[in-house]
Specification:
This protein is mainly alpha-helical. It folds into 2 domains: about 60 residues, Winged helix-like DNA-binding domain superfamily/Winged helix DNA-binding domain (Arc Repressor Mutant, subunit A, Orthogonal Bundle); about 40 residues. The protein is about 60% helix and about 10% strand. A 3-stranded antiparallel β-sheet has the order 1-3-2. A hairpin with a 2-residue loop joins strand 2 and strand 3. The protein is rod-shaped.
Amino acid sequence: MPNMVSVNLPLVLTYEASPWEALGDGTRRAIFERLVERPRAVGELAGELPVTRPAVSQHLRVLKAAGLVFDRAEGTRRVYAVNAAGVERLRGDLDRFWTQALTAFQSVAERSTKSEGDKQEMKKP
């Protein structure tokens, strides 16, 4: 099997991911959603998902590089948690997208209203 971490998981060759790209992978999204509930160690996450511990570690590295999670040492294990600053950056992106969409909609609606008004003016005798 070329470049595979496990049977179903392709090897992640880079850890330079944007938060959106990082969450674009279903397994990483599942890991992130579990971390939103509460911090967890790699072994606990691997026990909850149909992927190996090394695969979970690899996904966590991508999420960490994207600024979405951080880790801390607890004895001999690493515990991962959601990075609030990373989530805030995603929220900022969504707010910006939403504002742009509303502005575009308003522009179209105003053009449509003006166009309807012009048609009404032309119909007057």
